[in-house]
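Let us walk through a complete example step by step. Step one is to write down the protein sequence. Step two is to encode the small molecule, fe (ii) ion, as a SMILES string so that its atoms and bonds are unambiguous. Step three, shown after the inputs, is the structure prediction itself.
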Amino acid sequence: MLTKSRLAYRICTPLDVIPGGFTFNSYLVADDEPLLFHTGYRKLFPVILEAIRNVLPVEKLRWIGGSHFEGDEYGALNDFLAAAPEATPFGAEIGVLTSLNDFAARPAHGFRDGEEFSIGSRRMKWLYTPHVPHGWDCGILFDLSTETLLCGDLFTQPGAKMEAVTEWEVLTASEGMRGMMDYYAHATSTSAILERLAELRPSMLACQHGSAYRGDGAALIRELATTIESGNAKLSEQPRVVTA
Ligand SMILES: [Fe+2]
Ligand SMILES: [Fe+2]
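Step three: the predicted structure of the complex.
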């Protein structure tokens, strides 16, 4: 059984960036080597810092990373690196090459696809998911010990007042978001990458935006893949526009 000091915490900040609001989640995995997944925007640093301090001294952080290099994933990285001198920034190998080692105040660790590492009682696995949902450097972290997929921008749900964890499917809401903002790269490898994630059989999908989903993660990921595929099939049926 995990002790209270070894729980994962969802730090949720709602912002008024779209009508109806939108949430930004950082996940703090408290273990022997505490890990923060997503720093939040630079301007959110004081808010996230205070939330972390409710759980553990920020200087104890050992790993600070995110799914892909954008402001909401890494914006406050250097503020956190200053506050946590023993923490190592991390991301995908290609993310370290393209952005992290330029941006971060200290050398970053780039995880290989499939690389596993221990943070104490938990074992984590990095999965490289290029362009899914977006970003060449995109990757996802799987907590093998609790079957939690820290799934970044997958299943992004709009709204400001979101439960921390829901057992209702989150696909309808995230498809609404995808209809509103086309935030998926139109990559040919999307289905294959989603199938790899489904094969992990996660029991929790820890989304960066919206509620975390507890349930049959594999089934929901496969439903997402089918939905994307059927949308793509419809698009390819449309007649091409020819201009003279
Ligand atoms: Fe993103
Ligand atoms: Fe995001």
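Step four is interpretation. The mean pLDDT is 94.
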